[in-house]
Amino acid sequence: MSKLLQMDFPFSGPFGDEMAESLRELALSINDEPGFMWKIWTENRAQNSAGGIYVFETEEDARTYLDKHRARLEELGISGIRAHIFDINPTLSRLNHAPL
Amino acid sequence: MSKLLQMDFPFSGPFGDEMAESLRELALSINDEPGFMWKIWTENRAQNSAGGIYVFETEEDARTYLDKHRARLEELGISGIRAHIFDINPTLSRLNHAPL
Fold it and tell me: What is the reported pTM?
């Protein structure tokens, strides 16, 4: 069953359109990660943070990507990364119109 | 523009089908919250945690719901609640097939 990966971390920008421009190649590469289904890109300019909500086909896929992305962020000097992998409760999510 | 609310907290169950049964009425009530668009219900039995990824129409809607839900959880004796409200980067999210 698919797994949800929730990540966020301190981030000093760029945000918005500039972020979209500078991270376009990274986004395209994520489409090729094993088991990747989708990602919502999150950002909070006021709180200097950013992250993502991902859905992967399996826990192993989510964990493999998390390890890779954590290493990439740490190489960029980012620390304080928060990451959690969750099951999705399908019955309750369907009741609340979740796009799954 | 719509806002994403990410919440998670220590939770000792029930999980899975039992969770779906016991929280069905709560889920239905969430559909009536102002500005609510959808929720993915998250749970992690191994780590005793649960939460949700919500999308609301506005920041005010997200914040109003967060305050209400936080008070409800605290009344149930739940502490250690982590909650963050984010903007969604639409360009990058579209590139990654996000269901928005």
Answer: 0.96
Flag whether residue A86 sits within 8 Å of chain B, measured between CB atoms. Answer: yes
Domain ranges of chain A: 3-95
Q: Does the interface ipTM go beyond 0.90? A: yes
B24 part of contact set with chain A, CB < 8 Å: yes
CB pairs under 8 A, 24+ apart, for A10-15? A10/A48, A10/A49, A10/A78, A10/A79, A10/A80, A11/A43, A11/A48, A11/A49, A11/A50, A11/A51, A11/A78, A12/A48, A13/A45, A13/A48, A15/A43, A15/A45, A15/A50, A15/B87, A15/B89
What are the chain B neighbours of A19 within 8 Å (beta carbons)? 89, 92
Q: What does the pLDDT look like over A60-91, one tens digit per residue?
A: 999 999 999 999 999 999 999 999 999 999 99
Q: Which CATH architecture has domain B3-95?
A: 2-Layer Sandwich (3.30)
A53 close to B (CB below 8 A): yes
